Amino acid sequence: MENSFSFKRNPTYGKDFTMSCPEQDANLFQKLTFSWMNCLLWKGFKNPLELNDITDIPPHLHVENTSLLIKKVDFKSKYSLLKHLISHAISNYKIIIFLKLLSTALSISTPIILKVFLWYIQKDANEKEIYIGWILSFALFLSAFLLNFSQQLSLWNSGKLGMEIRGSLSCVIYKKMFMMSNTSRKTYSMGRILNLIGSDVSYMHEFFMNVNLDLILYPIQIALLLAVLCFILGVSGAVGFGVMLFSLSLTTYISSRMNKYMKWSFVHSDERVKMVSELIDGIRSIKQYAWEKIFLERVEEKRQLQLMFLHKRLARWIVNQMIIQSTSGFVLLVTFSLYTVLGNRLTADVAFTALTVFVNLKRPIETLPLNIQKFLMVLLASTRIQEYLLANELQSSPFDILDYTKEKVDPNHYGDVKIINGHFDWKDGLSDSQLDMNKSDNNYNNDSNNDNNNTSFNISNNNLNNSNNSLSLVKVLSQFSLDNLEDAIENHNLHMDINIDSVEDGVLKNVPNNRATVNLDSVLKTKSAKIEMVEISSLTPNRSSPLSTPRSATRQRVPTGTFKDVNFTAPKGKLTVICGQVGSGKTSLVSALIGEIYRVDGVVSRPNSISYTTQQAFLTSSTLRENILFGKPYNRDRYIKVIYACSLASDLLQLPGRDLTEIGEKGTNLSGGQKQRISLARALYSDSECFILDEPLSAVDPLVAKHLFEHCIQGMMQGKTRILVTHQLQFIPYADHIVLLQDGEILQGTYHELQQIGIDFESIMKTKKLNVDTHHLNDNVPTPKNHTRSKLDVIKKIEALITEDENTFDLIEKSRQFVQEDLVSGSMGFGAYSDYIRSGGPLSVFFIVVCGLYLISQCVFQGSDFFLKTWTQRNIDPDPGDRFYILIYFGFIGTFMCLLGLRYFLITRYTFGASRSLHHQILQCITYAPCQFFDQNPSGRILNIFSKDISEVDTQLLEGFNEVMYGFASVLVSIGMMIYLNPIISAPFFALAILYYFIQQVYLRSSREIKRMESVSRSPIFSCISESYNGISTIRAFNEHVAFIQNFQTKLNLNLRLFFYNFSTQRWIGLRLEFISSVVVLCSAVFCIYNSDANPSAAGLALTTALSVTNLLTNMVKQITDLEVKMNSIERIKRYTEIPREEVTETNASEYLEIIKELQEGWPRFGALEFRDLEMSYKKGAQPSLIDLSLPVLPQQKIGIVGRTGAGKSTIGVSLFRMVEASKGCIMIDGVDISKIGLHDLRSRLGIIPQEPFIFFGSIRANLDPLNQYSDLDVWEALEKVQLKNAIQNMPDKLDSLVFEGGDGLSTGQKQLLCLARAILKNSKIVLMDEATASLDYQTDYIIKQIIKEHFTNATVLTIAHRLDTIIDSDKILVIDKGQMVEFDSPQNLINNPLSKFSRLVIAQTH
């Protein structure tokens, strides 16, 4: 079971996690040889490793300790973060510098020893002394081994450095998330933060693990080796050095261009992941609206833009690789040609010593341009991370980013909750500040800054407070189109300073404190308290950072509200009720109290200990119990009382694991009312000094609302300060203090005080009175039994349901919501490779043509080395001269370059095609997956596929396949050449090959399992980030950031723990394989001593080849393992492409011709609806949520559906839209069984207003009419009907105004009204309204009810509602209880029956 957040349980860690790392107890020899890994590797060789087999990492690598790395960063320069990390590496890992210098020195000594050895073997037999040959042979062996030994130790220490930086950056990015202000959250979406950790931190990690000092030492190594070359070849070596420098400069330039295209691909990757995140979050609404194709096109559009830049990068990668691979051969050609032209004779000791120099040069020459490219990527990644860390923060951050355990506490004494002369701004106090549109050379920067091309516009206006001035600004901006403006910023450093010294904002004035003597006239004479919605520039300013906002935000518009002169009081220990119309600012006022809005001026006084419930309940992916406890200690007695007070007793009976039932992400397996009550229970259990409750009663029926109010708000919360935001006006008379937001004014006082100043609550509540005769109910309703006795009975039932043992196997199995991510054991099957290759092209062509080209090209390249033997021997008679040899050698190099270009073209064609195809497949499969898939898989796990895995497929697999095929071809050709030149070496070689194979198998069996576990351990990290981001305001209000950060660190430590042991296994095998390779060098050298008389040139070539095989074998094993690890991404993608899909989207024409005809004629034409013995359950084998539901609905009938929360009301809509297929029975619409209709055909013809409104990032118009089916006039009419026309018209861009993901900036009521406008536009014959007006005030609800009544006169409407006045005018009322129909009759008939459940609901709301 994967819990994204769990306070008590961490099943991912395993029982042996507390065991210390074996390295800590190892002796010096074991540390130097990595023998401390033997026990783990041997265990993995015999049986597949499990998580419990992996012990802890050294304490200094724990995230809790490494996160202190960022503590002393001084963010004053452009790359201050990167500079600080480099400084840390230099000061704390000096051993790496020593080992790098040692390996550089040894790389120089090896060719010098070889030259002496080759000079020795060319002597006459009578001049040779055998012991000298043995000494030189052992010198070569030691030089080769010590070189590789120092490199392995260097990599080991660099790996630990990389882990420190990865853990530190990941942790500080997560911490920063809890400190982001409103403007920062609009700039940094969840997808962008996931990309920061998934991609940018990975680049930083890889740089410090594999690159860092090589950027400095490789040029030194190249210079020293070329100095040796000059010593051997004289001026010819200097010319070769010049050719080498030209090659490096050319590859560096190409790398910089590649980096530019990669940078732009990052931009579109961020947007793509953001859109995928939006698709996953709103998948149910998207399916209900039949918008899958629209969202697929949106994501694919961004994907195509990303692929366009990746394609351009690949074109330059091909050229770059051709230059890198052919440089050594081309330099040899130039050098040897000039050497012979100058009159020198090319001998074996000169040729093969030079060849050895180039063998040692090959790695730095090939790697340096790649390292430069990686360095440029790190510059970009560090800038993106630094910019994020400098993003605007909350005015009162909940903690210090460097010390999250240190809470910031206001020492003031708190009595009443107050706001005194408050001035608040959603724009973080930037409404009157300078708005910068700086050229962003720190985020998506251009390659250079040119002051001569700097164009600046400075626009200042000291009184920019009217439309004319606003228009002047628009005129200046309109000189550029949006795309041209971006180009101008990119190419000409366009800089715009917009100084707005004075902007007239709305003023929020409160009623005078002497409210007892205030009358309505005096209130009207006071300055109105207005909450003005203002549209700001398309840039989101960043107050705390000198860095400008990322360009991805330049298209966004941030709706902001400004409150001035706010005076608010909530008396200590009393109940304060806040009410008002939709969009009047209730939630904003609450946000000001909890510190979510920037306070420009004034004082906010509140207790440090508060509990907060949001309008849309935030739940974690853990058990119901853990959601209620929320980090607090478990107190059984209080817990049981909370369960009763929040009316959760009956829900526990329905849940399979009772209170240990795992809650799906965002509460997907709960009803809206259940989610709200769990959220309320969390607040109640916390026992804080102050409770701030934002609309907790909107999603529950009247009976439950009454219970919650009496037993929770006025019960267990009694004596505490309670601030309740509600539209349930029946509870207003019970409030000690009332705050009314109406027409931009804030009025407050007691019920009677507000009546005295003219606030007529009775007239307001007239709109909620039921238009039926209910006077007889008081007399006829049965007298309830003893209330106290009933309460005790319920509590006893709860006690019986609550288990003390959380580890009860049966309960745990029943409670599971999420499925475990598959972890395949054993070797990577050929199927994964073949699936990947087939995604890019024909499998046969790949193996015959592409693999063949790699083998042939390496034969040609190493054939040029073999030709040197012929050149140095000059055994062609008659001697054709040096020109002949030069031309032949040139032919080898030219042919190799041609084959090189062809093989790179073909492999990039395959990998690019596979990347495009796999993303398309996974996107299609995820989008059309059934809803159960999303219930069982956290969004973080799915996003991991689209971020990390797709990123590896895009950029890593090409290099992986290229390196493996190149290494395999090189080793094959080299071994074949060695055996051909010196057949006697085959005996020890094959003996060593057996040992080599055994060591490789020991390594592979453990390494692949550890790496798979590491890959799987990433998903909980992404899920944790996703979940925390969605609940930031709740977490901050409860002050539970410490628990969430510790939970994140736990998951991150697990991932680092697995990486540590995977990295350790690589060092273990690397050291042993390189020792074997060094023994091969020794054997080859010894055989050369006794075989050199026959052919010194052949002996020299054999020895040179043996030296090259030393690196080739080790690198090949590493590359094979790395490729197998990267192929885990393909495995996961492949598994997700095999998930079951929903039923067909289009109706099958061959089977249902009559239905197709009906569809073509405008089905449904009447709206007749019939449920026939319908039964539906959300999980196979689970208790049905609907049982034998049978009822007819006539065309144009209006059906109201009521029942207790969790009774199954919304399940009727789920069945109607076939979100979950019925297990029994059917639904008929106009006589057609909907199970025979394609899902798209069905859903696109039904109308819905969902319980949780779905708003996506885009314009207002796109949200209302994404298919662009209606005219602007139609859209405006729909907006007018839902009372939103004025609000939209006041936006600068009207219908084209942008709204953020999730409708951020809009109230829940406004979002519901937008969804209602969609339904009005669609004008379907059958409409489902699922709590469509739950978040609306009664006045707005009354108006909307009249509009719905008029507009949907000819439609069949199913209305699910807890507000009885919403459905009291329905033709019939359907009462659902425990998934069964218990009542179905007209409202009046049900009310006339005093024993009916509906009449009890009426009493609860009206009395």
UniProtKB/TrEMBL annotation:
GO terms for cellular component: membrane. Belongs to the ABC transporter superfamily. ABCC family. Conjugate transporter (TC 3.A.1.208) subfamily. One of its GO terms (molecular function) is ABC-type transporter activity. CDD domains: ABC_6TM_ABCC_D1, ABC_6TM_ABCC_D2, ABCC_MRP_domain1, ABCC_MRP_domain2. Keywords: ATP-binding, Membrane, Nucleotide-binding, Repeat, Transmembrane, Transmembrane helix, Transport. This is ABC transporter C family protein. Residues 95-377, 848-1124 form the ABC transmembrane type-1 domain. Its main location: membrane. It comes from the Eukaryota. Residues 437-461 are annotated as: Disordered. It is found in: Membrane. PANTHER family: ABC TRANSPORTER C FAMILY MEMBER 1-RELATED (PTHR24223:SF172), ATP-BINDING CASSETTE SUB-FAMILY C (PTHR24223). One of its GO terms (biological process) is sorocarp development. InterPro entries: AAA+_ATPase, ABC1_TM_dom, ABC1_TM_sf, ABC_transporter-like_ATP-bd, ABC_transporter-like_CS, ABC_transporter_C-like, ABCC_6TM_D1, ABCC_6TM_D2. It is a multi-pass membrane protein. The chain crosses the membrane at residues 95-118, 130-149, 222-254, 317-339, 843-864, 884-906, 987-1004, 1073-1092. Residues 534-768, 1169-1403 form the ABC transporter domain. It holds the Pfam family ABC_tran.
